[in-house]
Amino acid sequence: MFNRNTKSEWNLEYDDSLYKVYDSAKRLAGYFFPDYDSLDAEVRHNPKYKVQDANLNDPSSITLLHKIHAVLHGGSLLLPMLKLNLLDNQNGITVDNVVTALHSNLRTAEIWKDWLSVNGITLGIVASSVYTAREDRNMLSILLIINEQIILGEKEVLESLGPILDKLHNDGLL
């Protein structure tokens, strides 16, 4: 069904407990935050791995989890949702431009809402939240909460996130 020989549109880079998601043009497309609290009990309680509940916030424990390709049961995918183009304009904006921007953004938000209702369950997305992007107050980001088995490691996480990223891309949202 899947041609494993095709090159992925996406690349992941592990960076200090999270994964940066890049598109095929090497542009940052989002972030994936593994849910370390959902660590598989077999790893969590296995003395061989020396990972215990108390030290999951320890960077060395997180690094170890990635080295052993630990199994988690979810995480959060943060992606750009829409660009407001309304804030921090020093010259002011005409009322017509405000209305146009709001209508455009409303359509985009409705597309996201419909996309989540149609695709969320099949892709393991159990919830979502919208935030103002830290670097750009004009950008809204959407956090997709994923409740699927995730094996840590760049290649493995990409295998889990690939269907979501591909669907978003094919549907014009990413």
List the helices and strands and how they pair.
Blueprint: E1 11-15, E2 18-22, E3 28-34, H1 41-44, H2 59-67, E4 71-72, E5 75-83, H3 95-119, E6 125-132, E7 139-146, E8 150-151, H4 154-170
Antiparallel strand pairs: 1-2, 2-3, 3-5, 4-8, 5-7, 6-7
Description:
- This protein is of the alpha+beta class.
- The protein has a domain at 76-170.
- The chain is built from 4 helices and 8 strands; from the N terminus they run βββααββαβββα.
- The chain has helices at 41-44, 59-67, 95-119, 154-170, and strands at residues 11-15, 18-22, 28-34, 71-72, 75-83, 125-132, 139-146, 150-151.
- A 6-stranded antiparallel sheet has the order 1-2-3-5-7-6, with helices on one face. A two-stranded antiparallel ribbon has the order 4-8.
- A hairpin with a 2-residue loop joins strand 1 and strand 2 (18-22).
- The longest helix has 25 residues, at 95-119.
- The model is unreliable at 1-7 (pLDDT under 50).
